[in-house]
Design goal:
6-stranded mixed beta sheet
Length: about 280
């Protein structure tokens, strides 16, 4: 079986869909030139905006979003599969969804996934995030079917909830996408170790395309996009937070080999909860 060549697109997404499309287009074209068959962009690929009023002004539905429609056209033009790690899209008058969108080489939307876990936190550096005040969380895990097998869909903060990755892996998934816009403090401390843990626990490839750098809205994201194999080894990564393309070749047979060597998915047993 030939390796699956994946491209992780690292961006510093601006505050409008049109500018975001202009930024990502040459990166996607570079990935195509490098032979990528599956291209993954970060969380919030279509725009990033912390100001609620400004965000609501530019928010569009999935069908109306110029970034999403532009990437659909790029997938069809170049005959490649593209996972928009997530697009921020309207789902009501004052609510949004943080939605992953998998697009086929024919330019068709194959699957979508709305981020399950909301990042509601007060960080030690004073940053405060309340995703639940604006975003409507998803209610179900999603597996997308691709020519290379099932792809597990997760987004950023989801990585702190290992039971989601376990459920995807026990359903037959061997490749899991984790697009993100990780903050700098949490990224420096936890980004690599959490991603490697999710890969090791489940004997799965983990593909994490990230936002990086200081954005127009003032947020600072960690970058360091990376691909990790089922043994927990980093097989490709970005050096820092600059926009770039990270290419990784996945030997998908490694999933079965690793799960045979460490059969934790099979060895798992039900158990009663702890007593007080």
């Amino acid at each position: 079986m030939s390796p699956l060549r994946v491209a992780l697109i690292q961006t510093r997404t601006p505050a409008s869909q049109e500018a975001a499309l202009a930024q990502v287009t040459p990166l996607i074209e570079q990935a195509v030139a490098d032979g990528a068959q599956l291209i993954i962009t970060p969380e919030g690929s279509n725009f990033l905006q912390r100001d609620r009023a400004k965000l609501l002004e530019v928010l569009k539905t999935l069908d109306e979003d110029p970034y999403v429609q532009g990437v659909l056209a790029l997938a069809q033009k170049h005959g490649v599969w593209i996972l928009i790690g997530s697009a921020l899209v309207a789902v009501g008058a004052d609510k949004a969804a943080n939605r992953a969108v998998l697009i086929s080489a024919q330019g068709q939307v194959i699957e979508t996934y709305d981020k399950l876990h909301m990042f509601d936190v007060d960080l030690p550096n004073g940053d405060r995030y309340r995703e639940s005040s604006l975003y409507q969380p998803g209610s179900e895990a999603k597996i997308a079917q691709t020519p290379w097998g099932p792809l597990g869909l997760t987004i950023c903060y989801d990585m702190r909830f290992p039971h989601l990755y376990r459920a995807l892996s026990k359903s037959g998934v061997g490749v899991i996408a984790v697009p993100a816009a990780f903050t700098r403090p949490t990224g420096e401390a936890h980004w690599e170790v959490l991603l490697r843990a999710r890969a090791i626990e489940n004997g799965a490839f983990v593909l994490a395309a990230a936002q990086g750098g200081v954005h127009e809205d003032g947020r600072a994201t960690w970058g360091h996009s990376m691909a990790i194999d089922p043994w927990g080894r980093i097989i490709a990564q970005a050096d820092g937070d600059e926009p770039c393309v990270v290419i990784a070749d996945l030997d998908l047979q490694q999933v079965d080999t690793t799960r045979q060597a460490i059969p934790s998915l099979k060895n798992e047993r039900p158990f009663a909860g702890p007593t007080a």
